[in-house]
Amino acid sequence: MNETFLRPEHGEADWYDARLPRPIRPHRGHPLRTLATVTLVVLLAAILGISSAYVIIEREEPLNAVTIGPWHAYPKAGTADADPYSVAIYTRGAVVPLASGEGLALVARKDSAGHLLDPTCVYRIAGQTPSARLWTLTAVDGHGKLVETLPGRVNLASDSLLRAPDGSFEIMAARRPHSGNWLPLAANAKASDGLRLVLRLYDAPVTTGAALDGVSMPAIERQGCP
């Protein structure tokens, strides 16, 4: 039998022939070079993953927020369904979120016009809140820490508010005393310190995202700044 039909005319070695065009010529990389490339790719992927996680955690704002006007709620924060990033944010800030059976916390970082809250300004917080056995309104700095105020307190409670006949209220948040309902802000704060308003509803039926649909929340209006 003719050997021409038994042996292929071209073998595998012909693919590495220098006469072949470079685009179709297979490349046999050096083992050390291949190892270095793989190591570099893995290292870059690790750096990218760690950096992205750090950026999310550093923003100090949990994910999966329910937005109602200037207020943001995180119904899953104190449950087993909380996402890992939000858990890391709370852990890093040493914050224990309210469990679903305890209540719900809503945070405002901007006023109703969309401007970042400034501790040197005066704000009018007016309207109504969802039903709750008790709620508190607290002023903290941009990192969620308590501040020093002139009267030594940083919050108001619903059981000590002056209200209108329809149950609505008006609160003035400012560094200096105001008549009526006054929420003290940091006495010696700078604009760069930041400001957050935290409304905590205790023993409230609105502890899930679905229950928050259509509820009424107080507006936050800037009255003036130095």
TrEMBL record:
The record, for InterPro entries, names: DUF1214 (IPR010621), DUF1214_C_sf (IPR037049), UCP009471 (IPR012038)
- Kindly indicate whether the keyword Transmembrane helix belongs to this entry: yes
The DUF1214 domain, residue ranges: 103-204
A Pfam family that this protein carries is DUF1214
- State which residue ranges cross the membrane: 35-57
Assigned keywords, A-Z: Membrane, Transmembrane, Transmembrane helix
Q: What is this protein called?
A: DUF1214 domain-containing protein
Q: To which species is this protein native?
A: Roseibium sediminicola
